[in-house]
Amino acid sequence: MSLPPGFLDELRNRVSISSIVGRKVTWDMRKSNQAKGDFWAPCPFHQEKSASFHVDDRKGFYYCFGCHAKGDTLKFLCETENMGFMEAVEVLAREAGMTMPARDPRAAEKADRLTELAEVMEGAVRFFRTQLNSGAASAARDYLRGRGLDAKTLERFEIGFAPDTRHALWAHLTGAGVSADRIIDAGLAIAPDDGGKPYDRFRGRIIFPIRDTRGRCIAFGGRAMDPNARAKYLNSPETELFDKGRSLYNAGPARAACGKDQPLVVAEGYMDVIALVEAGFAAAVAPLGTAITEDQLRMIWRISPEPVIALDGDTAGLRAGYRLMDLALPLLSAEQSLRFCLLPEKMDPDDVLRAGGPGAMQKLLDGAVPLVQLLWQRETEGQVFDSPERRAALDKRLRNALAHISDQSLRSHYAEELRRLQFAFFKPPRARQAPWTPKARGAKGFTPPPAHALQATRATLLANGDSGDIAERMREEIILAILLAHPALLDLFMADLERAEMRASGHEVLRQALLALPATKPAPGDVSPLLPDPARLEATRILELGHVRIAPPVRNRSDDEFARKCLKEEFAKLFSRRGVALELREATEDMAELADEGLTWRLRQAAESRNRAERSQLSDSADLGEDRAALSGELQRLIESEVWVKRKK
C-alpha cells in the first residue's frame, strides 16, 4: 500500500533509533555520549568485541565501521527481525502510537480480492489433507513413509493428496458455496476451451502447499504417483496470488529461522527442503521447478546476505550453479554474496541425509566454497593450458566475468583472488623447477647471471629471509602518521586503508582503530583521544619517530590538500611494492632450496624492475616537498644504529 507524504518522517521522528537498536545491543557508555544522541556498541550484524557500531539519534541512522551495515530504524527492524518493510512500518507505528493510514479504494478492493482467493486456497489445503487419510491415498502414504516422512512431518508441511478423479476438489468447493470463477482464478481448476465443465488441475498427486512470507497459501505443488505422468512435478499456474518467479518454498519459516542465526540453505525441490528442515536445518528454501530468477535471488538475499546454494551432484546441478553465478555477478556487493555446497555425484540433500545423517550434511555445508572459487572452477576444469594462446584465452574469460561486477571495490578483490589462483595453478612444482637459463646468451643489452652463487649474495637479508622489510615498515608508519595528523582525510582514504593490511602488529592495531573511528570528522590533531589504549600508544610511538617527524605532511597539519597528495602517492607505492612482493618471496624460497645463482639473478632483475617502476611513479608525480637532506640524515642514523643488520641466529 502507498503511504501519504510525511508519514514515514513523522514515524521516524516519534521513535528514536537508539530505543529500537538498544533492545538488540549493549551500549558502550565509555564511548557513547547519551546527551548528544551519540551511541556506540558491538555490532549486532557480525561477531566482534569492539564497539564499532554507531547510532546517531539526531540523524536517525546507524553504521558499522566493521561490516559497513547501515540504515535507519525501519531497515534495522527489517534486518534484525526478518520483517518486510510494511511489517516494520506497522510495528513502528504501534510504538509511536500512530494510526496506519487508510487504504485507497482500489488497493482495498485488490486486497479483498486476494483475501478471497487465499480463503479458497485454504479450503483446498483442508480438502487435500483429509484425502491423504482416505483409502485412495494408500500408495501415497506408503511412498511418503518410504521417504522417511512421519505423521508429525506431514502435519508440519500440510502435505495432502489429490484423488485421481476429474471433479473431486471442484465438487467439494462448489458444494461449500465457492463460486466457479474463484476456483478457476485460484488456479485449482481448468476451464475447457469448448465450454465444458471445469475439471481439477491436480489429480492423482501428492500435494505440497506453497505459502508466502505472510503465511498465505498462494499455490500448490503436486508430485505424480503415476510413473507415466507427463510431468513428475506440477505447480499451480500464475495467478493474482502466485508469481512463480517471485516465490520460494518454505520462505516464511526459513526467514524466521535465519532470524535465530541459522544459515540459509537453498535446495532444488520440496523433498530436499523437507528433509533439511527435519534434520535440523530449518532455514531451507527452494525455487519452484525453474532456475532461480533475479527476483528470487533478491528475495533470498533479503532473508540472508550469504546463503549456501546446495547443488545436486550431477552435471545438471553444476550447470544450474553456473547459471546462478552469472545471474549473481552484477548484483554482488560487500553485503550480499553466495556460497556453493557441491554435493557428491548423483546425490541431493535428501540422499546425503539418508546416507550420513545431519553430520554429513553439516560437513558439506561447512565446506561450501565462495562464488569466486566456482568461477575459477568453471573457467579451468577439464581444460589444458599448454600454450600462450590458451592462457590468454583464460585471461580474457576471467576479465569478461570481472567486468560484470558493478561494485568497484569488490571487483578489485575478485581480481586479486583470481590472480592468486592463477599463480598457484600455473606455478611449476618445485621439485621439477629448473634454474632459469637464457636462450640468447651474449645478446646486446643482456647480462647473464654469474655461474656460481656469491658469498655476498648468500649473506643478504633477502636470501636468508630473516629480517623484516624496513622500507615497507617505514611506509606504513608514514601512512598512519599522515592520517593521524589529518583525520579529515580518513573518509576519503577509507577504502585504501581497508585494503592496506599492515604487516607490523602494532601498525595493524592502529589501522583497525582508525577504521572504527566515528564518521564525524575530528579537528586536526584531535584524533588520538578517540582511540583505545593500545592504538593510542602506537600512535604516540609512530609520531615520535625521526623519519615521521621530518615528513612535511606530518609537520604541516593545516594543509590537507598537500597531505592528500602525499597520502595518495604513499598508498600507490605500497600497493605497487606488494604486487611484486609475491614473486620475490617465491623466488627467495626457490633460492633457499636450490642455491642457484640464476635465481639470485632473477631476484636482482625483479628488484630492479620494481625500482624502475617506483622511479617512474615519482617522476610522473608532482614534487611533494620531501625534505631530502633531513631524510638522508635520518636514514644515516638508522644505518649507524645497525637497523639494517640481519638478526643473528
Roughly how many Å apart are the termini?
74 Å
Shape: globular
SS summary, helix count: 28
**Total beta-strand segments:** 15
Radius of gyration: 32 Å
Largest sheet: 5 strands, mixed
Quaternary state, please?
single chain
pLDDT < 50 stretches: 431-447, 451-468, 617-625, 642-649
Structural class: alpha+beta
For the biggest β-sheet, the strand order reads 12-11-13-14-15
Mean pLDDT: 82
Share of helical residues? 40-55%
Q: In what range is the share of β-strand residues?
A: 5-15%
Overall number of structural domains: 4
Account of the 3D structure:
- The chain is of the alpha+beta class and 649 residues long.
- It has 28 helices and 15 strands.
- The strands form 4 sheets. The chain has a 5-stranded mixed sheet with strand order 12-11-13-14-15, with helices on both faces. Strands 1-2-3-4 form a 4-stranded antiparallel sheet.
- α16 (388-403) packs antiparallel against α17.
- It catalyses: ssDNA + n NTP = ssDNA/pppN(pN)n-1 hybrid + (n-1) diphosphate.
- Monomer. Interacts with DnaB.
- It is an enzyme of class 2 (transferase).
- Keywords: DNA replication, DNA-binding, DNA-directed RNA polymerase, Magnesium, Metal-binding, Nucleotidyltransferase, Primosome, Transcription, Transferase, Zinc, Zinc-finger.
Brief summary:
Keywords: DNA replication, DNA-binding, DNA-directed RNA polymerase, Magnesium, Metal-binding, Nucleotidyltransferase, Primosome, Transcription, Transferase, Zinc, Zinc-finger. The protein is of the alpha+beta class and 649 residues long.
